[in-house]
Amino acid sequence: MVTHGYTRRGVLTTGLGAAAGSLLTSGLAADPARAARSATDNPLTLWYGKPAAAWLEALPVGCGRLGAMVFGGVATERLQLNEDSIWAGGPHNYDSPEALAALPQIRQLVWEDKWQAAQNLADQKFLGRPSEQAPYQVLGDLALTFPGSAEFTEYRRELDLTRAVTTVTYVRDGVRHTREVFASNPDQVIVVRHTADKPGAVTFQAAFSSAQSSTTAAAGKATIALDGVSGDTQGMQGEVRFQALARAEAKGGTVRADGGTLIVEGADEVTLLISMGSSYRSFKDVGGDPAQVAERHLGRASRRPYEVLLRKHVRDYQRLFGRVAIDLGTSAAVALPTDERIARKQLDTDPQLAALYFQYGRYLLISSSRSPGYAANLQGVWNDSLTPAWESKYTININCEMNYWPAAPANLTECMEPLFDLIKDLAESGARTARTQYGAGGWVAHHNTDGWRGTAPVDFAFYGVWPTGGAWLCLTLWEHYLYTGDERRLREHFPLIKGSVEFFLDTLQTDPRTGYLVTNPSHSPEVGHHEDGGENVSICAGPTMDMQILRDLFGAFEEASTILRLAEDMRERARQARARLVPTQVGHLGQIQEWQEDYRGDAALSRSRHISHLWGLFPSHQIDPRLTPDLATAARRTLELRGEAGAGWSLAWKINFWARLLDAPEAYKRLSNLLLPARTAPNMFDLHPPFQIDGNFGGTSGITEMLLQSHGDQVHLLPALPAAWPAGSFSGLRARGGFEIDLEWSGGAVLRGKICSDLGRKLTLRTAKDVTVTEHGRPVKGERPEPGVIVFNTRRGGVYDVAVSA
């Protein structure tokens, strides 16, 4: 088979893969033209044989700050536009002034097992004001209307992941039209290029529209503008002003703006530039000038020819995307349109679909989380609504963190920068919430935040009174260090980690029944443990997830404090507190307990999509088949009891769980279920349903975990390789400890590989069979403490070849 990948320099390469494409189906074999086309097309392409009829069929482009959904229409092209700072409402302090006075009573009610009373009091006094946060909102649409007949032929619409360019081609009235769209991070504009194979054949009108309060007008001879303001919400007036500009530059023909309509007539080719700006400067300041932002980017991009814009965009994008290549095998199914491949429900006969899904996740992260720009929210950057599901916020009891699971292992640490900016903001607003609602130092964030960086509990007490969202986010700062060894960034991030630890050292309570240190009040996210007074209650003290998160938080703080030689006194306090946290326990059904108490009945048998008490299995490694086999067995039992139900993101989490349990068949089963039409839209967006992007990122992470794991001070190659991928390769995946790895396998086992050591640290390498390790052709000295394990020292910048032992 032919596969496409990249060298580390980002140059596209083509080579022979490990499988020969023997999985031809009778239907494809009967269409040799389609099958032949699959051999020459770029397999890292989503493609379709018709225009998008719905939003979940449109193709996303983005550069972090800007996003667009491209429908690929013929008579009308719709570009649905987003700018990542358009939030309803305005700067707001959500903290409840009544919370601190109510806190002791809430805690006492929890100690007395009066859960409903505690939860009711939390609903009344402890929730933010208002109790709902603001939604992320759409900017609007730009519609391009083309005159001509309704008939067209030879249609193809695609998204090339290797270039981050969408293309639509078709023949209409005897003329072949080609339209390309991309979002440029270097130039901060969306670029549309329309060409035809007949001179003077490009004619269209372009106009903005928006569901927001807005106006349109001409903004120059060849430019139109949309000006608007974000919506009101929860009694807060919309304060984010925005402007979008569209400017056409044509070769041949004429261009003019007539009111809010851009008119292009008789051109040979047209480049349309779309720029957007908002008044949002920070979560505290919306006093910016959106017109100045939009015009600055548009003016700069207008001075560059299309070829330069495209070249800069592709070079910038490939610098990130081109670091990783993956080959899981192929079949004639690659000749089918992407929506048909998903509809077939046959991942076993289409292994390249899994590779496409993996790389699509990387594409989406690059496209929705870049600087300048804000962190990827529940929908990345793509949203067509004023009232999206779950407000398209940042849900930090799983979803926001899941967005960034693939960032480091899939070699995209730069995409974590907007998340780090979010954490810095939350540490500021969360310090106020810590004082106001807990009388504590440090900072806290609960289960949701928005553009105004709300950190108080929101929604309902059943969901919102969970204080460890900020703690989990802090562990992404530590993960960055584990992968990169970047001590400068660790020093920069240390105050954020320290502030979270300070909060918990101030607020952890001694459980009067057990003597353990616990959070109170809290809950195991979105799961109830009792019916009390006819209502489901979740409020509790010391749920398992909290204890696991804090165990890692305190541990990370201790290590970072030691490395940086900072906060020595506080380091000892954290060490002592860590030793007093509730250990992870096994319950009466052989499961990991979700709470301190081994609750019976419906609680133990919950089928919730949330499996928060397995946080210690993934993303942590407190539960490990090798190091804690009893807990690993209990984790497996937990997954069996939880069942198959779950949203797209929940299925994605389960891929990672089963991979960590080294169970390839079960991990692959969840991946197969994730790629069914009920969970993956025609454009490969994850479906909760509705669309929620964390499933895409969690799925990419899960595939990585099947191929490479690097927790517990070792690097494990092919730890959960499914039988469906007997031969393949990857290059550029990252492991903790500063290692970059290329690998080829055959017959389900390592064949050969290459390990680059950035930091020169000792490496414990685990494989199913013994391997030899050489540097410059010479054997590397190492210890072999058990079969399949070799431990050896590396040097900074060293490159080590791995091969199966003879």
Automatic annotation (TrEMBL):
Domain (Glycosyl hydrolase family 95 catalytic) ranges: 306-707
Alphabetic keyword roster: Hydrolase
GO MF annotation list: hydrolase activity
Pfam families in alphabetical order: Glyco_hyd_65N_2, Glyco_hydro_95_C, Glyco_hydro_95_cat
Coiled coil location: none
InterPro entries, alphabetized: AFCA-like_C (IPR049053), Alpha-L-fucosidase (IPR016518), GH95_cat (IPR054363), GH95_N_dom (IPR027414), TAT_signal (IPR006311)
Location of the Glycosyl hydrolase family 95 N-terminal domain: 46-282
Highest taxon in the source lineage: Bacteria
Domain called Alpha fucosidase A-like C-terminal: residue spans: 709-802
Protein name: Glycoside hydrolase N-terminal domain-containing protein
Originating species: Nonomuraea guangzhouensis
